[in-house]
TrEMBL record:
<feature type="transmembrane region" description="Helical">
    <location>
        <begin position="148"/>
        <end position="170"/>
    </location>
</feature>
<keyword id="KW-1133">Transmembrane helix</keyword>
<protein>
    <submittedName>
        <fullName>Putative transport protein HsrA</fullName>
    </submittedName>
</protein>
<feature type="transmembrane region" description="Helical">
    <location>
        <begin position="274"/>
        <end position="300"/>
    </location>
</feature>
<feature type="transmembrane region" description="Helical">
    <location>
        <begin position="234"/>
        <end position="254"/>
    </location>
</feature>
<feature type="transmembrane region" description="Helical">
    <location>
        <begin position="436"/>
        <end position="457"/>
    </location>
</feature>
<feature type="transmembrane region" description="Helical">
    <location>
        <begin position="90"/>
        <end position="109"/>
    </location>
</feature>
<feature type="transmembrane region" description="Helical">
    <location>
        <begin position="210"/>
        <end position="228"/>
    </location>
</feature>
<dbReference type="GO" id="GO:0022857">
    <property type="term" value="F:transmembrane transporter activity"/>
</dbReference>
<dbReference type="InterPro" id="IPR020846">
    <property type="entry name" value="MFS_dom"/>
</dbReference>
<feature type="transmembrane region" description="Helical">
    <location>
        <begin position="176"/>
        <end position="198"/>
    </location>
</feature>
<feature type="transmembrane region" description="Helical">
    <location>
        <begin position="23"/>
        <end position="46"/>
    </location>
</feature>
<keyword id="KW-0812">Transmembrane</keyword>
<feature type="transmembrane region" description="Helical">
    <location>
        <begin position="115"/>
        <end position="136"/>
    </location>
</feature>
<feature type="domain" description="Major facilitator superfamily (MFS) profile">
    <location>
        <begin position="24"/>
        <end position="459"/>
    </location>
</feature>
<dbReference type="GO" id="GO:0016020">
    <property type="term" value="C:membrane"/>
</dbReference>
<dbReference type="InterPro" id="IPR011701">
    <property type="entry name" value="MFS"/>
</dbReference>
Amino acid sequence: MSVTTNPASLADRDGLPPDARRWAMLSVAIGVGMASLDTAIANTALPAIAEQLNATPAASVWIINVYQLAMVATLLPFAALGEVIGYRKVAIFGMAMFTLASLACALAWSLPSLVVARLFQGVGGAALMGVNTALLRAIYPAKLAGRGFGFNSLVVATSFAIGPTAASLILSVASWPWLFAINVPLGLLAIVMARRALPATALAGHKIDVLTVVYNMLAFGLLILAFGEGAHLQSWHTLAPEIALTVLFFVLLLRRQAGHSAPMLPVDLFRRPLFALSSLTAMCTFAAQGLAFVSLPFFFEHTLGRSPIETGFLMTPWAVLVAVMAPIAGRLSDKYSPGVLGGIGLALLSSGLVAMLMLPAAPTAFDIGWRMAWCGIGFGFFQAPNLKAIMGSAPKSRAGSASGIVATSRLTGQATGAALVAWCFTISAANGTRYALMLGAAFAGVACIASFSRMAFAAEAD
């Protein structure tokens, strides 16, 4: 089935008809699920990949970091491009790039070659994720927006739930390249579906400024690079120039886009308190998740002596409960304040991470499982309401920029979490996971406060 639209009616259209909506959501679900599955697989399989490539835990974290660096550096340019040429075109490009890069990952022969392939995979993921939420806003009518965001969260969470188990099962019968090869057939299917089903959207009248794109990429890329170098305790001779250049390019970026009606780094949207607080909530929450998801596999395998298969199953309860709670939270967000729903969920997440710190010396699978499930319940209660809060607090004409910030907040948080894990392992190999969980609980606590603070701006509207 293909979706046809009348360009003159795009600006006033409130979502797609039910039949067309289902086909469009299926294409989005395949693409987003593919990227999310890859993230979950890479996180869980990191110790096995590091061992087979003879890489240290701190060095192997760059398999995660470089992917996030590429995504963070290019998310906002792709989101802005989506406003100009259409979200559909950018999403299809992202799926194609991600698929080709996944094949390159599967063919990688060393840590450097895998890192380079992951860099291009991150670019493809940025194009897809940068416009994903804007596409949801075009697919679903406003009154069902929470349901749409809940379904999207369900897809992401289900992919995370499948990821650890899939990684463990694949590693039990094959080598690590097959972890990435699985994306190739999924990517081809996603491209075919997207070409047939994704809707056209109204196009913005402004153009993309190439110099602004360059400043944006350098500013965010250097920021994530500085995170990683700092985490590995590089000397100030290395860090100082990186930090100085990061500040310089952010200043140049802000000056270059000053006065623009639709700035690539959407400072106009950050003037809206609900949008700013929701973005802060997302960044801190995903930092907490990153700290847990990157560090726990090392704890389960190196400290507790669990096998890769056991590690996959121990990671699964978190993602499964997110999948269970996501559609529930999405529907509730159509009736109740995202600030309240997110605040409750993040309080549960923070307490769950504290509970992980209190594991007995020789924990059983049940000891670990109920704590991971508790964290998953909390995270699941946060995600869909927060998406709705961010997208609902931005004008429809700025949906692309808002969608870019959704993904940028998530990836900046995850990159921060991954970098801090590397830092924790660098300062103490034995207690690295414990320090990471402490930081994760703290980030979740800050996010909880930010979420409840949104109640004062619950009535803010476009």
